[in-house]
Write a structure and sequence with these properties.
The complex is a heterodimer. By secondary structure, chain A is an alpha+beta fold. Chain A has helices at residues 11-27, 39-44, 68-76, and strands at residues 2-6, 32-36, 52-55, 58-62. Chain A has a single domain (2-76), classed as Glutaredoxin (3-Layer(aba) Sandwich). Chain A is built from 3 helices and 4 strands. Chain A has a 4-stranded mixed beta sheet. The two termini of chain A are 12 Å apart. Chain B is mainly alpha-helical. Chain B is 74% helix and 0% strand. Chain B has helices at 14-21, 23-48, 56-86, 91-98, 103-116, 124-133, 138-150, 153-163, 165-188, 197-201, 216-251, 254-261, 268-276, 283-295, 300-312, 315-321, 327-351. In chain B, helix 2 packs antiparallel against helix 3 and helix 3 (56-86) crosses helix 8 (153-163). The longest helix of chain B is centred in the middle third of the chain and has 36 residues, at 216-251. The chains are: A alpha+beta, B mainly alpha. Chain A binds chain B through residues 7-10, 12-13, 15, 39-40, 42-51, 59-67, 69-70, 73-74, 77, and chain B through 87, 90-92, 95, 118-123, 125-127, 129-131, 202-207, 209, 211-212, 214, 218, 221-222, 225, 229, 323.
Chain lengths: 77, 352
C-alpha cells in the first residue's frame, strides 16, 4: 500500500503523516509513506486544501487531520 | 435468546466517558474555576505578596495573575467549541457553494464563509487555485481570502467572552465589511489578467472525496486535539501579550495613552496600522494587548485598526500569494485592505 501525504510542509501535514503512520502500523499494513510537497504535484491530484491523504493514488481526505482511530477506518476501507 | 448480551446503555459504561460524557462534569467545573479567578488573583497580589492596591506593581501583578489563567481557560473553551463546529465545514464545500456566484451577494457569502471555513494558511495557494479554477469569481475569492485572517473565529469568541457581544459584533462586522469591499472592488476592476499564467494553465481537476461520516465522539476527539494543539502553540504569545498588557495596565499613564491613541489624534489610526503590519501575531496573542489599550483610554477604532493590521496584513502571506498574483494585483490587494482598515478605524473613532 502506498500512502502519500500531500502538503507544502506545514505542521499539520507532519501531524497527518504521524497519525497515518501510527494508524497503518496499528492495522499491521504493508505500506510505504511518502510526503509530496511539490505544488503542481499536489494540484495534479485535484487537491485544494492541504493536508491531504492519498492511498494508492486515490484521494481519501483533504483539508483536515483526523484522529488515529479515524484514519484506521479510512485505511481499512 | 434470553442470555443475549444486551448492548450496554451508552450512558453508563466507560463508552459514555469516551463518547463525550466527560463534558458533563467538566463544563460546570470550568465555570466554577473561572468564577474563582478574580478573587484568587486579588488575594495573591494584595494579601499573599502584600502589594499595595494602589501601587503600579500591585496593579500589574493582579492584572497578570487574573488575566493569564482567564484567557487561557477561555481560549481552551472557545477552541473546543469552534473546532467541533468546524468539523462540519470544509473548503471543498465552501468552494462549491461559492462557485459561479458573481456580484455583491457572492462577496458577502464569501466573507462569512471566510470566517468559519477551517483552512491552514499554508494551503492558501492551492485553495486560491481551487477556487478560481472551478469558477468562483476572482473578487469573491478575495473576499474569502481577506475575511479568513481578518476575522479570526477564535479571536471573535474570545472578544465575546472578554468584552461582551457589542465589541465582538463590531469586530466581526467591520472585518466582514472590509472583506466585502476589498473583494467587490477587485471584482469590479476585472483583474483576471493579473494572475500568474500558470494558475489557469496547470492541470487541475477538483477531486471529490466522499468521506465517511464522523461520529459525535470523533468530532469531539478532534476538538480536544485542536485545544491541545492551539493552546500548546499559542500560550507563549498569549503570555507575552498579557505581560505587555499588564505593563501597560500598571505603568502606562492614562493621559499619555489617551493622547497617543485617543480619537482626538487623527494620525493614531495610520500609526496603529504601521505598527501592526510587521507584528504578525496570532490574533489570540493580540487580544490581551487590545484589552489593556482599551482600558487605558485608547479609542476603539484605533485599536480595531491595530488588530486588523496585525492579523490581515502580513508579509509571509503576501509572499505566498505572490506565487499566484502578479505585482499589480498584489498591490491592489494590499492597498484595498489597508484602505478598508483605515476606513474602519476612522469610522469607529467618529461615531463612538
Amino acid at each position: 500500500m502506498k500512502i502519500e501525504i500531500l502538503g507544502t510542509g506545514c505542521p499539520k501535514c507532519a501531524l497527518l503523516g504521524r497519525h497515518a503512520d501510527e494508524a497503518a502500523r496499528a492495522l499491521g499494513l504493508d505500506y510505504e509513506l511518502f510526503y509530496v510537497k511539490d505544488l503542481p504535484a499536489i494540484l495534479a491530484h485535484g487537491v485544494m486544501s492541504t493536508p491531504a491523504l492519498v492511498v494508492d493514488g486515490v484521494v481519501k481526505l483533504q483539508g483536515h487531520v483526523p484522529t488515529v482511530r479515524g484514519l484506521m477506518e479510512v485505511l481499512k476501507g | 435468546m434470553p442470555e443475549a448480551a444486551a448492548p450496554r446503555p451508552a450512558h453508563r459504561g466507560p463508552g459514555f466517558w469516551r463518547g463525550g460524557g466527560w463534558l458533563v462534569p467538566a463544563l460546570p467545573l470550568w465555570f466554577v474555576l473561572y468564577r474563582c479567578l478574580e478573587p484568587f488573583a486579588n488575594w495573591l497580589a494584595y494579601r499573599r505578596l502584600g502589594l499595595a492596591g494602589s501601587s503600579r506593581l500591585g496593579s500589574a501583578v493582579a492584572f497578570f495573575a487574573y488575566d493569564a489563567p482567564k484567557v487561557v481557560m477561555l481560549l481552551a473553551l472557545v477552541v473546543l467549541g469552534v473546532t467541533f463546529v468546524q468539523t462540519f465545514i470544509s473548503p471543498d464545500r465552501t468552494r462549491d457553494i461559492l462557485a459561479g456566484r458573481a456580484g455583491a451577494w457572492g462577496n458577502l457569502l464569501a466573507s462569512v464563509f471566510g470566517i468559519f471555513t477551517p483552512f491552514c494558511s499554508c494551503s492558501a495557494v492551492p485553495l486560491f487555485i481551487g477556487f478560481v479554477r472551478v469558477g468562483v469569481p476572482l473578487g469573491v475569492t478575495f473576499s474569502f481570502l481577506v475575511a479568513a485572517p481578518m476575522v479570526n473565529e477564535v479571536a471573535l469568541f474570545l472578544l465575546l467572552g472578554l468584552f461582551g457581544w457589542k465589541i465582538a459584533l463590531v469586530y466581526a462586522g467591520t472585518g466582514l465589511t472590509v472583506a466585502f469591499i476589498a473583494g467587490w472592488v477587485i471584482g469590479k476592476l476585472r483583474m483576471e489578467k493579473h494572475l500568474e499564467a500558470w494558475v489557469m494553465q496547470i492541470d487541475f481537476k477538483p477531486s471529490t472525496v466522499a468521506e465517511a461520516a464522523q461520529s459525535f465522539s470523533d468530532r469531539l476527539d478532534l476538538a480536544v486535539d485542536g485545544v491541545r494543539d492551539i493552546v500548546g502553540k499559542v500560550w507563549p504569545y498569549l503570555l507575552a501579550g498579557i505581560a505587555a498588557g499588564a505593563f501597560i495596565h500598571g505603568y502606562a499613564p492614562e493621559a499619555l495613552m489617551a493622547h497617543i491613541m485617543g480619537k482626538a489624534a487623527w494620525w493614531s489610526v495610520p500609526l496603529a496600522v504601521l505598527i501592526g503590519v510587521p507584528l504578525y501575531s496570532n490574533a489570540a496573542g493580540a487580544i490581551p494587548i487590545v484589552q489593556a489599550l482599551l482600558g487605558k483610554g485608547a479609542a476603539l477604532g484605533t485599536v480595531l485598526a491595530f488588530m486588523m493590521a496585525v492579523t490581515a496584513l502580513s508579509l509571509p502571506e503576501t509572499i505566498i500569494l505572490r506565487k499566484v498574483l502578479k505585482p499589480r494585483l498584489i498591490g491592489v490587494f494590499l492597498a484595498v485592505v489597508t484602505a478598508g482598515i483605515l476606513l474602519v478605524g476612522y469610522l469607529f473613532n467618529a461615531i463612538l
